[in-house]
Design a protein that fits this description.
- The longest helix has 51 residues.
- Among the domains are: 81 residues, Orthogonal Bundle (Arc Repressor Mutant, subunit A); 96 residues, Orthogonal Bundle (Arc Repressor Mutant, subunit A), CATH 1.10.10.
- The protein has 10 helices and 5 strands, in the order αααββααβααββααα.
- α1 packs across α3.
- 52% of the residues lie in helices and 9% in strands.
- The strands form 2 sheets. A 3-stranded antiparallel β-sheet has the order 3-5-4.
- The protein is mainly α and 273 residues long.
Length: 273
């Protein structure tokens, strides 16, 4: 098989593959061609030629831990990501610090991570790293409790375009975790800060409402006290007799009738001689 044809076949295979292709898988593509089966050296040469052809273009041929793959050049990723509505996942600084410690100090236990960071490691962080298949349990440390020892996976290397752990940048070169990878932003911490501000505003609002309620209660109590005082004064000024019974008014009609009766009794009948 001619080298040009071999290069075209490998290019087509890599463009249609949904995962990186390691050398063993590429060789399996030509197993049926007994007479024209290319050697491993010919396949490697075709891969190198493809890498040279794609230099300076929008896509590139990249070798990662799981094999070779065609991918978008990182500089063009922001525009390509606009084709999908879903935003890439974002992670907190605590998660990135935990991931860095596992990558550079593996195998490492959760207790050792907490000792270095000075704070406890959330179970949610370990669960997230495990679900993303970036971290796995390598074994258990031979100490009381037999804690799990964590290490990175091949998927971790693939995600960060690394062929092996030797390709990791030195710790001296990592001056800012925000620049560790362009897709890793610290949105969760920003959201947490906004949540704290929201709690502050909520507390302020609740305090204001409590103050207004207190003022309303005091006004109501003052009004009730005033009404009670007026009622008490009115009760004290009302006339009462010795038996604490109010005096009943005198009926003027009864007075007139008594007066008329007395006058009739005082008149004398005339004497008839």
């Amino acid at each position: 098989m001619e080298q040009a044809q071999l290069k075209n076949i490998i290019e087509a295979v890599l463009l249609t593959a949904d995962q990186p292709m390691e050398m063993r898988k590429l060789e399996a593509v030509f197993e049926a061609d007994e007479e024209e089966r290319p050697s491993r050296d010919n396949i490697l040469q075709a891969l190198q030629d493809l890498q040279s052809d794609y230099e300076g273009r929008g896509i590139e041929l990249k070798e990662v831990a799981s094999g070779y793959r065609m991918q978008v050049v990182p500089d063009n990723a922001p525009w390509v990501s606009r084709m999908w509505e879903e935003k890439p996942p974002r992670y907190s600084r605590a998660l990135l610090e935990t991931l860095v410690l596992i990558a550079y100090r593996q195998p490492i236990t959760r207790g050792e991570i907490e000792e270095i960071r000075g704070v406890s490691v959330s179970s949610h962080i370990v669960k997230t790293l495990t679900e993303r298949e970036w971290v796995r349990v390598l074994g258990h440390k031979d100490v009381p409790g037999r804690p799990s020892m964590y290490g990175t996976t091949r998927d971790f290397l693939d995600y960060f375009n690394l062929k092996s752990l030797d390709d990791l940048p030195s710790l001296a070169d990592i001056t800012d975790l925000d620049k560790l990878h362009p897709e890793l932003a610290l949105e969760q911490e920003v959201a947490a800060d906004e949540g704290a501000d929201g709690d502050s505003l909520t507390n302020s609002s609740e305090t204001s409402e409590t103050s207004e309620t207190s003022e309303t209660s005091e006004t109501s109590e003052t009004s009730e006290t005033s009404e009670t005082s007026e009622t008490s004064e009115t009760s004290e000024t009302s006339p009462e007799n010795e038996d604490n019974e109010p005096e009943s008014p005198v009926n003027e009609q009864e007075i007139d009738e008594v007066s008329v009766s007395d006058e009739d009794e005082s008149e004398e009948e005339p004497v008839i001689n």
